[in-house]
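Consider the following assembly input.
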Amino acid sequence: GAVVSQHPSWVICKSGTSVKIECRSLDFQATTMFWYRQFPKQSLMLMATSNEGSKATYEQGVEKDKFLINHASLTLSTLTVTSAHPEDSSFYICSARGGGKSNQPQHFGDGTRLSIL
Amino acid sequence: AQTVTQSQPEMSVQEAETVTLSCTYDTSESDYYLFWYKQPPSRQMILVIRQEAYKQQNATENRFSVNFQKAAKSFSLKISDSQLGDAAMYFCARGGSRLTFGEGTQLTVNP
């Protein structure tokens, strides 16, 4: 149980294009979803937290207009990197948490490797 | 800032031996949760074990156990009978409304 599917797993695109990454909870309802960014050999950096039906809460330093997050249903959240540039190249991971209690663990997707040429 | 510190960037262990990964954290909250996640080369984040701060008993999951010292704000992970498949990056994390991760410890298991 507690499977999170993230798609695509790898995307390469030209500078200036927008890229959408999907995160789905397959067998549970995700009250809260999280988006992280991870650079090679570094830890996960939280970008934003989203609750179903609400606007996402972004961490300090994360551009809201660059990284658009939508959490329209209890099983789907999307991250859109708008007008992507090479510096946006990174590994992006989503996670989902069910229920209303913060002691519930986050279940992670397999990540998306984004390469901007 | 409420931080999580893993002081061992790299660790190695012989297959079948035991290894302990260290983690300390800082928090002003009285109710919080602690996790260890494993990230193998595939980069998938896998929950290894979790501990609720109000529980004094140390959590155990098969070969994995923790030594939770609340007063010292310490949360170490012990892996017994290490296997080749245990090789990965291990992240300690403190949770509440959000997770704060440590910098990770790269574990190598030698055959």
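Chain A touches chain B at residues 34, 38, 42-44, 46, 49, 91, 93, 95, 102-103, 105-108, 110-111 (CB under 8 Å). Ask yourself how this observation constrains the way the partners meet.
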